[in-house]
Design brief:
Elements lengths: L4 H17 L1 H11 L3 H7 L3 H11 L3 H11 L5 H7 L11
């Protein structure tokens, strides 16, 4: 099932809110990306930033589980959300 861009952006915004609410992970994300807290505020609606948030979240299964449990989302939906955002397309090498 293909997820719409609007739905993906909504879920990704929830992920951003969850990440910002977790001060330890937020700080790790900011250091890893070189973004500032002001960048998060001003760029929150940008699909590329939302994709970066999901890429970060997908680095650790425990983070995926924590986020999905909090928002009531199936664990496998995060990959579908990411695929619907810029850079998430499957690469076909042949």
């Amino acid at each position: 099932m293909v997820m719409s861009k609007d739905t993906a952006e909504t879920v990704a915004l929830q992920a951003l809110g969850w990440l910002v609410g977790n001060s330890d992970l937020r700080d790790v994300f900011l250091v890893a990306t070189g973004l500032s807290e002001m960048d998060l505020r001003t760029r929150a609606g940008e699909p590329e930033l939302l994709a970066a948030v999901l890429d970060f979240l997908l680095m650790d299964d425990a983070w995926v589980v924590q986020f999905c449990d909090e928002v009531g989302l199936a664990y496998d939906k995060i990959a579908q959300v990411r695929a619907a955002l810029p850079g998430g397309e499957q690469v076909h090498w042949t």
